[in-house]
């Protein structure tokens, strides 16, 4: 008889998170009947106290905003992938009580693109400059052989993206948001902006576009994704990213691989359809 194990997603706000749906579906598929996965509304101030109370029943944590950076000082080890973007979305609690932080968003993006047949590109564009944009650059460091143009709203954001490019070994060029429609000439466009931000760009999608990776999943499709599909382009969505990064979390926390991708995606689709 194995001891019951626990995992959870932490963040603020957290009520919208699909992580419990995905991880519980994985546990069912893997026959881990004694595993549970919950969500906790935790902000930066409450995080140290929560982490200090974790006992041996805990297998891991998923972190969302605003905790991906705040968790780092509370860890014993951070992987090179997470350190490269100074963001941890996964904590694995080891058998000897250590807390190891990783970032599954980056390999999750690569896996989601690979699933749709996108393995290498010679250039790319990124819309936006927040935390997700830096993860997008880290993913592009693995699959893009040429320049990446980031379309941003301010010179401060442009400087930030160029700085990430230098750190990650990506040739980052920047352009103003008013020129964002020019991004659509790239073979791969990654949209990392909040809901509604790219709606006005939908009319500018060209005939026969390349691949759009829009990291949003609710509402879906975005106006940009719908216009892209209508013109024959390939679209990778936020649910694809969410599922692929969660599969990697499940594998790390449970030690069972491969994670049940199809069951987790079906659970996520059903949950979104019910909203």
Structural features, described:
The structure is a single chain. 36% of the residues lie in helices and 20% in strands. The chain contains 9 helices and 12 strands. The strands form 2 sheets. It has a 6-stranded mixed sheet. The model has no long low-confidence stretch (mean pLDDT 97).
- Given as residue ranges, the uncertain stretches (5+ residues, pLDDT < 50) are none
Number of separate strands: 12
Give the helices and strands as they follow along the chain: EHEHEEHEEHEHEHEEEHEHH
Distance between the termini: 38 Å
Shape: globular
Number of helices, counting only DSSP H or I runs of 4 residues or more: 9
- Widest beta sheet: strand line-up: 2-1-3-5-6-4
SS strand fraction: 15-25%
What is the multimeric organization of the chains shown? Answer: single chain
> How would a textbook summarize the main sheet?
6 strands, mixed
Q: Average the pLDDT over all residues and give the rounded result.
A: 97
Radius of gyration: 19 Å
Class from helix and strand fractions: alpha/beta
Brief overview, please?
The chain contains 9 helices and 12 strands. By secondary structure, the protein is of the alpha/beta class. The strands form 2 sheets. It has a 6-stranded mixed sheet with strand order 2-1-3-5-6-4. A 6-stranded parallel sheet has the order 9-8-7-10-11-12, with helices on both faces.
Which properties best describe this structure?
275 residues, alpha/beta, six-stranded mixed beta sheet, six-stranded parallel beta sheet, 12 strands, globular
Q: How do the strands and helices of this protein lay out in sequence?
A:
Blueprint (H helix, E strand, L loop, with lengths): L4 E7 L7 H12 L4 E7 L5 H6 L5 E6 L13 E2 L1 H6 L4 E4 L5 E4 L2 H11 L8 E4 L3 H13 L4 E5 L2 H14 L3 E5 L11 E4 L19 E4 L8 H8 L3 E3 L1 H17 L6 H13 L2
Parallel strand pairs: 1-2, 1-3, 4-6, 7-8, 7-10, 8-9, 10-11, 11-12
Antiparallel strand pairs: 3-5, 5-6
